[in-house]
Amino acid sequence: MSLERELKKRAENKCELCISDEHLQIYTLAPHKDEDLKKSLVACKTCVTQIEDPEITDPNHWRCLNDSMWSEHEAVQVAAWRMLSRLRKEGWPQDLLDMMYMEEDVLEFAKATGEGEADPEKLIHRDVNGVVLQAGDSVVLIKDLKVKGSSMVAKQGTAVRRISLDHTNEKYIEGKVGPTQIVIITDYVKKL
Length: 192
Prior knowledge:
Elements: H1 3-11, E1 24-28, E2 40-44, H2 45-52, H3 65-68, H4 74-86, H5 92-99, H6 104-111, E3 139-141, E4 145-146, E5 153-154, E6 159-160, E7 164-165, E8 172-177, E9 180-185, E10 189-191
Antiparallel strand pairs: 1-2, 3-6, 3-10, 4-5, 7-8, 8-9
């Protein structure tokens, strides 16, 4: 069976990124040039054009990655990761990137084009000891904190699991203390 036929069968004759069934083509991910089942995917003309030209990228078109990023196929995962990385300043792509899981070798392939390079303007959240915090980390409060707008006090020693990061301020993280989702200043937490 030819590679094109195998890929189209795998994709069920739809774009593996946005599920369009028009103007389909085989797209091989850079830096590879040879078509290969693990390095190529079926994509529509719209997706290919926007992948190749960042100037005409329409962020709303790529909301389709919410579904396709979970594909079991490496090429689809890599294409999704690269586009989400390119669009991360939109806000919602960063949330999807935080949820996305890829094997180390697949992530290395995704980063091969430099799409995921650290932005010099990227915010870095650090705990009281200077340890870098990532979305999904667990932290512990190092002092009692009054929660604005309520009579609740978050006690010292309380663990806050699966934090999320504020994308506009490096001093703010969010997490649940009991049933309440609160914003916490990073100066008052220590990474577990």
